[in-house]
Amino acid sequence: MTSIGVLKLTIIASLCVFVKGRYSHVSCQVVENKWCTVQRLQITDRTNVRSLVFPDDRYEKIRIGQYYSFINTDSIIVIFSGELFYRMRRVRYLHMNGVRMVGLDMPDTIIELDVSDNWLSRVYIDPEKRYNLRKLIMRNNLLTNIAGFKYLIKLEELNLSENMLHTVNFVVFSFIPYIRLIDLARNRILFTSGGQSVISLDFLETLNMAENKLTTLDIGVWIFPSLLTLNLTGNPIGLLSLSNHYSFSRLTNILL
Q1: Which of 5, 35, 85, 254 could serve as a FRET partner for 101 with CA atoms 20 to 30 Å apart?
Q2: Spatial distance between the Cα atoms of 81 and 78, rounded to a whole number of angstroms
Q3: Pseudo-torsion of CA 86, 89, 92, 95, nearest 10°?
């Protein structure tokens, strides 16, 4: 009996060591205003993300990166993959600023996503998924194309300032009927296009295209009846005609 008891204890101890070694628990370094802040997280293209366990059972809001002036707390997430998001699938608000990210698989159940100050040039948006994203901040990245953003049909706020966009087809936004804010400032936009279609955005209130390289603006096919602010400062635009008052019936703030 004694030997059998020792054997059972040995097996149990071995299993505990195995489980502990197999999974890596990611913990909150700081919890403030219901935000769980994760620091010192290192995920490269060789990291086995299946071993990671995030504290998403208790927190819907997670921030990863340098949010406090602590020493040696930088995080790296080179690729934010669908497999990695599966590890934190209960999170609804996710901020990952300054983590050297170059690729992103857009998470479908997130409501607010902030991936500013990274090196993003590849964003994969699955046309078969139904995205719940309402607010997307991708300021200061390396994006050159936003054609796939048309599948983010519930989006209300979009910040793509300080990227590398050269042209923007406003037809993309016609698939996002509830968009209220579009920020395209400080890109390299030479012109906007809309084809022959009328671009009607009933809820758009703010359009910021400041500090680009626009010389003309094709607004003949725009119908933005709720637009309040149009910011075009820092562009070499020679003439802007807003003769169609019906298309911009509430526009009161034009910055040139």
Answers
A1: 35
A2: 9
A3: -40
Rounded to an integer, what is the distance from CA 186 to the centroid of its chain?
18
Nearest to 140 by CA among 118, 114, 113: 118
**Pair 156, 137: CB distance under 8 Å:** no
- Is 26:52 a contact under the CB 8 Å cutoff? yes
Cβ neighbours around 100 below 10 Å, total: 15
